[in-house]
Amino acid sequence: MQQNMVNAYTTIQKETLSGRELEASVLSRAGLMLKSVKDNWDAPDRDQKLLEAVKFNQKVWSFFQAELSDPENPLPKKLREDILNLSIFVDKRMFEVMAFPDPEKLSIVIDIDFNIASGLRAKQGE
Fold first, then answer.
1. Closest by alpha carbon to 54, among 73, 67, 75, 38?
2. d(CA 77, CA 64)
3. Domains of the chain, start order
4. What is the pLDDT of residue 83?
5. Phi, psi for residue 89 in degrees, rounded to 5
6. What is the Cα–Cα distance from 102 to 23, expressed in whole angstroms?
7. What is the pLDDT of residue 13?
8. Cβ-Cβ contacts under 8 Å for 5 (sequence gap 6 or more)
9. How many angstroms separate the Cα of 17 from the Cα of each of 22, 47, 63, 111, 126?
10. Burial (0-12, 13-18, 19+ Cβ within 10 Å), 37
11. CA–CA gap between residue 57 and residue 34 (Å, rounded)
12. Is residue 95's pLDDT more than 70?
């Protein structure tokens, strides 16, 4: 029952959010998933939650990579390149976390997710 409510909320949110708001929301969710794993590192289901959080984060960043690689993307070339370089770092860190799990390795990606989301929200208000 609760999952149906979450799915309904997510669907409505997708339909009402602008592109930047949606990107910020998805990045925040990715950061929150990683933070939850980090904060509950000793939980019995950690490996499953870590895998879910890493996969979600990778999907989010893969989407950004695809969008930013498009020559028609309206962002300035330098900004696109900087974010693409950041996405490569995130990918490497996620693979490292899966190979050699350590909660502290998640901190930088959590910070990146939250900071980019915050920047997207700030741009929205301009």
1. 38
2. 14
3. 2-125 (1.20.120)
4. 92
5. -60, -45
6. 27
7. 46
8. none
9. 6, 32, 17, 23, 16
10. buried
11. 8
12. yes
Residues of the chain with pLDDT > 70, as a percent, come to: 83
Placement of tokens 């409505």 in the chain: 12
Closest to 93 measured CA to CA, from 43, 48, 30: 30
- Which DSSP category does 72 fall into? T
pTM comes to 0.81
Q: Which stretch of DSSP H or E encloses residue 123?
A: helix 106-125
Q: What is the CA radius of gyration of the chain?
A: 15
- Full DSSP string of 23-54: HHHHHHHHHHHHHHHHHTTT-TTHHHHHHHHH
Query: Rounded to whole angstroms, how far apart are CA atoms 37 and 54?
Result: 10
Contact status, residue 101 vs residue 54, Cβ threshold 8 Å:
no
Q: How confident is the model at residue 9 (pLDDT cuts 50, 70, 90)?
A: very low
pLDDT in tens, 35-55: 999 999 999 999 999 999 999
- Find the mean pLDDT for residues 20-24: 86
Average model confidence (pLDDT) for the chain?
A: 86
